[in-house]
Amino acid sequence: LLDMMVAEEENLKDRLLKSIAMCRKELDTLCQELQLEPFEVEEESTILQKEKNLRTHVEAMLKQKRDRKQELKTLQEQDQDLCDILCTTPFCIDSDAVPSLEDLDRYRRHLASLTAEKEQRREQFVSRKQQIILLMEELDHTPDTSFERDVVTEDEEAFCLSEDNIAALQNLLQQLEAQQSLNEAACTELRSRIIALWERLQVPVEERESSAVH
């Protein structure tokens, strides 16, 4: 019975030592992947306690690795959505490697900047779209290009908010404003000529007032 107990304890010791060796090896790999300092185990503790501590740390670091990879995936999905809207290139990061905490923090700040840029461009689009629609109605201008039709018919969720599109939007607004100014100048000149002709022809006030609505 004593021999059996001794053999059992020795087998347990061997299993624990093998587990400790495997845990140390896995911890070294995880520390490199997570870019952390090597884990130091308390050498004075018993073999059983040492194995338990190492196993617990392996499980904790595996969870940290999964969490980082999951957050990276989530950030990349958000990044792709923003890139599709803003027509920009995705953030440069190795998708296969485990990101460091600094990498994730940089990525978060990059996405916050893109989100702010998206909101700014969206506000510009909504404001300029309203001005463009009003000017087109006033000028009796029918959208005759695909870009003009997109501006008038698409909502801000579907419109591509690229730098080129925002610049083209501003250019279209300036063209319409210039046309409005030309039309106003032509109207002012024609009104002056009409008034001069009224004066020369001595047109009655009543007849003038009937035309004043125009």
TrEMBL record:
GO terms for molecular function: microtubule binding. It comes from the Eukaryota. One of its GO terms (biological process) is mitotic spindle midzone assembly. One of its GO terms (cellular component) is mitotic spindle midzone. This is PRC1 regulator.
